[in-house]
Structures are given as C-alpha cells and as structure tokens.
Amino acid sequence: VGLHSLSMSKFTLILTSLNLQVLDKCKIFSSVSLLVFITFSVRSQDIRNTVGNIPMEWYKDYPHIGYDLDGKKLFKPIRNKDELDEFLDKMENPDYWRTVQDKMTGADIRLSDEQVDLVHRLQQGKFGDVNFNEYEPAIDFFSNEVMIHPVTNRPQDKRSFIPSLIEKEKVGKLVHAIKMGWIKPRRPKETTPQYYDLWAKEDPNSILGRHKMHVPAPKMKLPGHEESYNPPPEYLMSEEERLAWEQQDPEDRKLSFLPQKFACLRAVPAYSRFIHERFERCLDLYLCPRQRKMRVNVNPEDLIPKLPKPKDLQPFPTTQSLVYRGHSSLVRSISVSPSGQWLVSGSDDCTVRFWEVSTARCLKTVEVGGAVKGVAWNPNPSICLVAVSYDDTVVLLNPGLGDRLVCTASDQLISSYEEPEEVKDQLVQWAVAEGEGHEQGHRLILKHPKAVRQVTWHGKGDYLACVMPDNGSSLQVVIHQVSKRRTQNPFRKNKGLVQCVSFHPIRPYFFVATQRYVRVYNLIKQELTKKLMANCKWISSMAIHPGGDNVICGSYDCRLAWFDLDLSTKPYKVLRHHKKALRSVAYHRHYPLFASGSDDGSVIVCHGMVYNDLLQNPLIVPVKVLKGHTITHDLGVLDVTFHPTQPWVFSSGSDGTVRLFT
Amino acid sequence: MSQVQARFFTENTKYLIDDVPFSIPAASEVVDLSGVINKLLEAKNDGHKHVEFDFLVRGQFLRTSLANHMETENISTEEVVEIEYVEKFTAPQPEECIMHDDWISSVEADSEWILTGSFDKTARIWSMEGKAVMTVAGHTDVVKDVAWVKRDGLSSLLLTASLDQTIMLWEWNSERNKVKARHCCRGHAGSVDTVAVDPTRTKFCSGSWDKMLKIWSTPLMTFSGHNEAVSSVLWMDAEELCSASWDHTIRLWDAETGGQKNTITGSKVFSCISYSPLCRRLASGSTDRHVRLWDPRSKDGYLVLLSLTSHNGWVTAVRWSPSHEHQLVSGSLDNVVKLWDTRSCKAPLYDLAAHEDKVMCVDWTENGLILSGGADNKLYTYRYSACVSDAGA
Lengths: 662, 393
Prior knowledge:
By secondary structure, chain A is α+β, with helices and mostly antiparallel strands. Chain A is 19% helix and 26% strand. Chain A has 13 helices and 33 strands. A 5-stranded antiparallel β-sheet of chain A has the order 10-11-12-14-13. In chain A, strands 5-33-32-31 form a 4-stranded antiparallel β-sheet, with no helix packed on it. A 4-stranded antiparallel β-sheet of chain A has the order 6-7-8-9, with no helix packed on it. The longest helix of chain A has 16 residues, at 165-180. The longest helix of chain B is centred in the first third of the chain and has 15 residues, at 30-44. In chain B, the strands form 8 sheets. In chain B, strands 2-1-5-3-4 form a 5-stranded mixed β-sheet. In chain B, strands 6-33-32-31 form a 4-stranded antiparallel β-sheet, with no helix packed on it. A 4-stranded antiparallel β-sheet of chain B has the order 7-8-9-10, with no helix packed on it. Chain B contains 2 helices and 33 strands. Chain B is globular, with a radius of gyration of 23 Å. By secondary structure, chain B is mainly β. Chain B starts with a strand and ends in a 10-residue tail after the last strand. Chain A binds chain B through residues 315, 321-322, 339-341, 358-361, 363, 402-405, 645-646, 662, and chain B through 103, 105, 119, 142, 164-165, 189-191, 209-210, 228-229, 231, 246, 267, 269, 271, 287-288, 313-314, 333, 358, 360, 375. Chain A: WD repeats lie at residues 324-365, 630-662. Chain A: Keywords: Nucleus, Repeat, Ribosome biogenesis, rRNA processing, WD repeat. Chain A: One of its GO terms (cellular component) is PeBoW complex. Chain A: Component of the PeBoW complex, which is required for maturation of 28S and 5.8S ribosomal RNAs and formation of the 60S ribosome.
C-alpha cells in the first residue's frame, strides 16, 4: 500500500536498491501487479490515482476512475476506438504487442525493452537481477575438518580431575560384593547352538552293524532265452553239444537242462525237475553264508619276532686270526683236543696233522694209508687218543701231545688189554700197531668190511661209533668198545643210507641220520624213541646240543634245520642262509653258538640260546658270516668245529688250510 | 682361526729357548714347528746344529696339524697353548738278522748275550754281533720260554721252559763255552709256556697249560686259581707276582703267602703281559688287535687305561722299555713289530716290518737293543737310541 503512495522516481530507486530478500518476497506477486508498478514508473506525471488497491471494476460505471492528490476526479480517457480501430491498430502498430492498458488510469503504455526483458526473466523463473549469481560457493563457518586450535579456549573443569567420591563408593560396594561372592561374573554366552544328540548312546554295531553285516540271499538267475518254450535256433543244442552235455557231470554242466523247442505253449509238458530244483533252491538259501567274516588286518612285519642285535650277543668269532697251512690237499675233517691246546686235521693227502692252536705250528704229521675221511679226538681228558678213519680202516693214534702222564696212561690202557678166553667172531679185525706205525703213534688198527666215512666218540671216551654208508645194508653203523676191543652192530637192519651218527652227550641215546630222517635210539632199552623229519632232501651233517635236547642238521639243499626234541619231530626252525650245500655243522660246548660250513666257502655263526625254562623257545640269531676259504673243485668249507673253551671256530676247507676265526 | 698363541718349553737344558708366547699358524705341523724352534736356537747360539723335534701338547704327541690336534683333544684355542718339545726319537736302526733252524719262540737278552728258545727243541746263546755261541739242547720238545737267571763272572745261569712239561736250569761258562744242566724241574702237567725269574735272582716262577703257577724255590709253591692255561707270568717286585691266562684274567699274587691280591678281567684271551716299574702300568697283548694298558693297583679290574690299536693280528708279545716310561714294543701275528709311545696312542712311533711271518717274541734290553723273533726263523735286532737326554721326561 505504501508503495502506491510513493512517487514513481522513489519506486524505481527502491526497485534497484532492494536486494535479494526483497525480491524473494516479490516472487509472490503476480506479474500483472508488477506491471501496474511499472506503469507508474513509466508515467512519471502528477496525475496520480489515490483510490488505493481496490478492484477497479468498482469504477466501471463511473466516468472517472479515481482521484488525484488534490481530491479532483480523474476522468477516464476518451475511448473512441471501436473494434475496427483496434484491429487496424493491431495490424499497423508495430508496438502493439508491447502496449498494455493501465487499469488505474486507463491509459495505454508502451513497455520499454528493459521491462520486456524483466518480464521474460520472471516468466522463466529466474532472478530479476541480471547480476545475481545464484550458484556462488557457500562458505561454512564450522568446518568438518578438525582444527589445531579449539573453537573455545575455555579451561577444563576442576571436577574432571578429582575422583568422584560417589563413584568410589559405588565401585567399593561392587568390589565388596564380588569379594563376598554375591556377584558372579557373567558367563560367556554360548554361541554354538545346542542340540540333543538322539543317537549318542546307541551302539553303532547293534543296528548299523546289522545293516553292514547283512548279506542278501542269493538271487536266482533270471530265465533267459534258453528257458523259452520256443527259443531262437542258436540257443538250441546241436547233436554234438547235447552228447557232450550228457557226458558231463551234473555239477560241471553250464546249463542244468536241455533247451527244447515246442510248437506252442500248450504243448509244453510239466517240468520234471521242478521239485528237485525247488529243493536245491531251498538248500541254497539254507546253506548260504549269512554273516560276513571279519578279516583281521595284521601287518606281516609285526609278526616277525624282534631279534636282538648281533652286537649284544658277543662273544662270537668275527675275524680270521690264524691259518694252519701244511696240507697239500683238501682237509676233510678236524677235531680239537678236549683241553683246547691241540688241533688234529685229516686230509686227502693221506696225512694227519697235529697243530698247536695258539701258534698254528704243525707239531706232528702222521702218515696213513689213504685219504683221511674223519678224525675225532677222544673227548675224555684223561685219555689221549685220536680216531682216524681212512678207506676201510680206523686207526687209534696216540699223538703224544699234552700231559705225558695222560699219554702213557692211554698207552697202558691199550696195552693192558687181555685176550678173553673164548674168542668170538668179530665184525671188525682189531690189530695192535707195531714197528714203524707204533713209532708214529698208531696204537690200534680196526679193519672194517667197508669204507668208513665218519668216526665219533661217546662222551666218556670208551665207545667209538663208525659209519659205513651203504644203502640198504644191515651193517652201516658199528660201535666199538676200545677198552674191551669189542665191536657190535646195534641195528639188525638200517633203513636208508646212513649219513652220520652221534651219541647223546648225557643220556644213553644214539642219533642216526639217514638221508631224510634222524632216528633217535635208546641204547639201554634198545628201541627207537623218536624219528625226526628233516624236511630236506639229503642230510649231510648233524650236531647235538651239549644240553642234549636240541639237534641241528645240515643238508645238501642249503638248509640247516634246528630240532627241539621236546617240541616236535619237525624242525623248530629252518635256516637257509648258505648259498650252497652245507657240509658240516657244530655246536659250541659252553657258549650259545653254532656254526655251519658250506660249499660256498663261508662259515655262518649263529647265536643259538637254549633256555632252561621249557616254555621259552630257543633264540636263534645269525650273527656272522666268516669268509676266508677259497673254493677249489666246487668245494668250500668241509668241516667246522668249535674250540672247547673259547668262542673260536675252526674250519677246514678244500683249499688245504684250516682256519681259526676268533 | 689362523694363528694360535703358543709357549714352547722343554726339560732339556741344551735346547732351552726364551719363555715367551709366540703366535704360530694353526695349520703348522711338526716339521714347521721344528723349523721354528731351530730358528730360535740358531738365533740364540751360533753353533747350533739342526735337530728334529717332536711336540707334546698336554702330554699327547702332535701328529697332525696343530689345529686338528687341538680340535680332537678339545683344547681351547683362545688361551696360550703350552707345547713341550723333545728331541725326535730316531728310528730304530736294524743291526743283525740271526738265522735259526726253526721258529723262534722266545728271546731274552742281557747286556752281553742273547738267549733264544726255538721250536727245534733247543735254546741258543748268541753274542751281540749275531755269532752263535752255544746251543743248549736237552729238551725233548719245543722250547717255549727262556730266561737269564744271573751271571757270576764268566758263568751264567739260564732257564728254559718247554712243551715237554719241564723247566731246565743250565749253567753256562762263557770262557770254556760249556753248558751243564743243573736241574730239571718236573711237576707241571702241561706244557710250560712261561717262566720268570724274581728280582732277587734266587727263585723263579713258571706258568703252564695245566692252569698252575709254580714258584721253584724250597719249598715249591703251587698257585692254583686260573681256570685256563697260564700264558704269561712276571714278577712285579720281590713279593708280587702277576700272571695272565686264557681265562681272560690277569691275576696278582702274593708270592709269600700265595694269596690272590687282585684280578683284572678282560674280554679276550691274554697272551702276554709286561710291567714297567717306571710308570707302574701293565701292558697286555691278547687274541685281538689291541695292546691294552692296565693299572695293576686299581681295584676296578675292568678298566682299560689305554688301548693301542694298530695291529691287524693277535698281539703275541709286548715289552715295556726298561729305560723309558712311555715306550713299549709289541709284536703281532701280522708280521709287524711296532714301537709305541703311550703319549701318542693313535699311531705307533715306528713300524718295524722286517719279519716275513708271525712275530712270536720281542725283547728290549737296557742298553737300547730291541729284539724280535718269529716264525720266519729270523731274529732281528734293532739299535734304538731313545734320546738319553729325554729318558727321564
């Protein structure tokens, strides 16, 4: 209202000087009313209507349209233009489009260029002021960035430094409550969900096991084309096939019936084997195994017994120490004196040599009349005699070594023999050596009917057993009694070829090894007590454990069989360590050792511990392979024997040497 | 580690040098060190002649480079090492080779004569020059051991022990060169393998295969206790006797009462023992490759002080040096005689490889003669001058 009363010049001043806020408010005015102001500003005359802001149609019926400042009527301009004039004016006047009528005065006003521009801007929704930039960047007073200087410089309160007494009291109460156990720490929440295990306590074997163990009943084979009443011709049997089928056993037949062809189903007769087949089916169901057998999975390595290390089983011979050289041909047999001072060896060069064990010195050489097959030193320390076998002769030698008294005593023992009054026919000729033979040490000469291969003494030193291998003959083993110069043939007949014999070290038993078996005879009862099956092709040698309950047998098929007489007649253990045939086996008298010599030139020493406890089986561990002999004529080691007191083993070989391993 | 601080010292006043530590290369060996010492001695006195030295580090002979030795002996290289130097032992010089008719089983020499026992059933007396002087024949079997008893001017008493179970005491007059059997000691029931004369030269002891020891004096004493043959016997002093046996033990006996004083148990057959009064140690050879040293006074009878291992066969003979407390000689079935110094137990000082067959016996006389006899029928003698100056070292 105030604006209307202001002069036009003042209004323009206000329009230009008013800033944004004013214009913002101006937005609410209609463009038409703005035009009213503009008309005022255009007509800068004193003819001013003072009626105010009223609807102008109130003056429609009056000749005047208002009043001026002096209160005089303002008359409406004379409107003498009709429609035609209006049209002509519209056609001819180029400013017609910018001519508007002022309703306050009724005069026509031509709008200036600036006014038209302003109207356009307002119509487009822009700011009236051309120079106003509405997109200027806004500057925040409080920035989001942290400044180094505080916004306020107010010092901190003192209370923020002083512990609060109230809080202290509260905390003290809590601490007391925790101490007294009134407050308990909160349990950690269990995050895992808890479920009830329905099957936790169920034995899996009860039901699952039943499922697992289930064996379905055997199903019958479904009928094929053969069973058809009208089978294709290829399923029908030809005449030959039918004959072959009839020839076969019912179990072997592929088909249990003959396929037959019928013209129609009506012509098929009743099946004759129906009952029979049903019965078999019942049997199948009845006999079918309905349970699965559990197989035990055992590592075979675990079944092997843990053997001690050879290092822990010392002493045993490990190295070759001495070589007894002198024989010119293969040495077939060796024997050590019971004192361990002397060694006797018999060779194919027809000599018997006596050696000092500790120096390998040959102290004596005795010539005999043939290749020496066996030597045996009398095990009785109070008799100094060596039995030597060659060809068909056994000679008892007195080497004259060792104690003089013992040597003379054994000479006397032989010479003190008195001829019995009644002379019986003997199997063997006993003769006393005389002359040069006696000088050499020959004492008694026993002529046998056949070639003697082995001699062995009884532990007491009076009996001497000789082996004369001859297949099937009744005279293969003879036992001589030296003190009475008597010979007996213990066996009426011998089965097989006797290989070697041996006396039991303690009891009156006698071991006879044939090719396959070892027979144990009781000499007092004169009966066979045991027959050991060696499981090998040809036994070559045998040795009895000094305890008397164990026997080892070497065989030509590279095996060494250990028998435990208390256990079984079959070998307790069979060792196959040698590459070639075994020639000789021996036990040590004191140490738990046994050795085997073979054609491969090696001696294998094994630890063979026999326990007094009957429940404990012997412990057999091979401990050492001793090599030294050279192989000549495909023969290696021919004889092995242990030293009676030391853990030393002697071996004689085909290379003419005797070797001592310690 | 390239340099080692070492201080050299010696007990031989002839070769003294200043007692100052030297920095020497750790890789230096005996020859280098010897050169160093010789340089120092030359600098000290002009008339010095080159001498080869041997070096002892903490009582062990230096055989490898110094660094190696100190590493194996666990000697710290940070400190100054004390190295003792002694004049190098010269190799034994072979002197004579005396041929026998048969294997030589035993030898014993004194300052003038050599006595050998042989497998041809005789004992022989030889001069030091290897001339056969006398053949003592009387035994009916191999002579196993011999011993000089004593010498009164021209007549000497000697003992021979034999496989024929007897010991014979002979009197030999060197001027007339006649030998006469004084006694034939019978009593053993086995071959007499060893005989030893006591220090007073009035009685002797014999050990035999029959497991017995006998002291032949009046009265005759018999010691039984061994379970196997006695292989070697010796007198430690006038009252104490020591015997080695095949039953793996060495036993010490009281010669007066006949009681056993101590037993040393080994694991192998003992074949020979020797005792040195200088170092009070027993050396034993057994049926394996080792020479073992024992302390006879030790109550713990299983303890081997030192094992000298270099032989390849049984050690058949062992003998301490009569004048040097560290040296001994051993003979073996591997045909070699070895000269040992106990301060260098890894390797012998010298190998005397003259024999062509088993060595059966060795001896060492007080005037520096080493003798060895063997199965090749030869008796070798070696002159060994263990440096006199070093004898007491």
